[in-house]
Request: fold
Amino acid sequence: AQTVTQSQPEMSVQEAETVTLSCTYDTSESDYYLFWYKQPPSRQMILVIRQEAYKQQNATENRFSVNFQKAAKSFSLKISDSQLGDAAMYFCAYRSGGDFNKFYFGSGTKLNVKP
Amino acid sequence: GAVVSQHPSWVICKSGTSVKIECRSLDFQATTMFWYRQFPKQSLMLMATSNEGSKATYEQGVEKDKFLINHASLTLSTLTVTSAHPEDSSFYICSARAAGSTEAFFGQGTRLTVV
Reply:
């Protein structure tokens, strides 16, 4: 089975600074999708960014970007110009390309943003 | 993005009673719905996957007779916690996926407290 590992249980960043959250995954598949979700205190899961494994170009969404290293099976999230509203739990997730119902979450990283 | 509505947002019930949680896809047909349980400061734990019109597939260790899942239509899935006990108190989240889509959308979650 695929596994998703987030090795940083908690991180802190100063407002307006940049922070990178790490995620590694283990898979034997060549076709898959990677996601970062944000879960604020309201606990609503919000999709931050997604990456298709077949795309070499790293995905970006405004202040959020990823560093996708397919060979290393690494998928880190960079948040630039951190804002207080970015404080949340962040989950890395993997979806199989062969079976869209196979969806795995990492253990999460709690991000604190200091004013 | 697509909207998934989960109801109720929170519920308190007495030990021994049953409680039903609804998950509705408001603007798309959800051929597959997922039910998760989340303990404080932990990741989402998949409980079961349900396809419209079929019996749900439960993850190992999840009691199917205790957590009844019904996915009777393409827009509604329900999770019924039967004979609830305090240890069933948790945060339950549903997500829904349309046929052929790699993305699943999440409900806002239900906080269940059994007293």
User: Anything to note?
Assistant: The mean pLDDT of chain A is 95. The two ends of chain A are 41 Å apart (CA to CA).
